[in-house]
Amino acid sequence: MEKVSNSGIFRVHTQSSNLVIGVFKADWCGDCKFIEPFWPEIEEKYGDRITFIEVDTEQVPDLVDELNILGIPSFVAFTDGRELVRYVNKARKSREEIEDFLNRALDVYRTLHDTAERKEE
C-alpha cells in the first residue's frame, strides 16, 4: 500500500478510473495498529481489484477536514475523482467489518461501471 503524504498525490490517485481505497490512519492510533496484523491478507485478497493508498492524517489535516474524516482508521472509496462510499466512525474496526465495506465498495464500483458501459452502447 502506497503511503500518501500530501493532498496533490492523493488527488492523482483518486482520479483513477480504477477503484481506489484511501485508508486514513495515524502513527499514534491504537485502532489503526489493531488492523496491521491482518491488513496484508486483506491487501492480498483484494489487491487485484482495488488499489489501496494509506493517508497519514497528521500530514494532510486540510484534506482530512475537507473529506470530513471524523475517526481513524477510516476507509473511503474513490473512482474518477468521486467518492463512492465510506466507512468512517470512531469505533475499532474488525477484519469482517473492513471486508464487508470493501465488498460494498466493489458492488458500487461495478454498478457505476456497468451503467456507464450500457450508456456507451
CA(first)-CA(last) distance = 35 Å
Largest sheet: 5 strands, mixed
Strand order of the largest sheet: 1-3-2-4-5
Using only C-alpha atoms, the radius of gyration works out to 14 Å
Unreliably modeled segments: none
Give the helix/strand class: alpha/beta
Helix % is: 40-55%
Oligomer: single chain
- How many individual helices? 5
What is the global morphology?
globular
Provide an overview of this structure.
The protein has 121 residues and is of the alpha/beta class. It is 45% helix and 22% strand. It is built from five helices and five strands. The protein has helices at 7-14, 30-35, 39-46, 61-67, 95-120, and strands spanning 2-4, 20-25, 51-56, 74-79, 82-87. It is globular, with a radius of gyration of 14 Å. The N and C termini lie far apart (35 Å). The mean pLDDT is 91.
Labels describing this entry:
121 residues, alpha/beta, 5-stranded mixed beta sheet, 5 helices, 5 strands, globular
Summarize, please.
It is built from five helices and five strands. It is α/β, with parallel strands linked by helices. Strands 1-3-2-4-5 form a five-stranded mixed beta sheet, sandwiched between helices.
SSE layout:
Blueprint: E1 2-4, H1 7-14, E2 20-25, H2 30-35, H3 39-46, E3 51-56, H4 61-67, E4 74-79, E5 82-87, H5 95-120
Parallel strand pairs: 1-3, 2-3
Antiparallel strand pairs: 2-4, 4-5
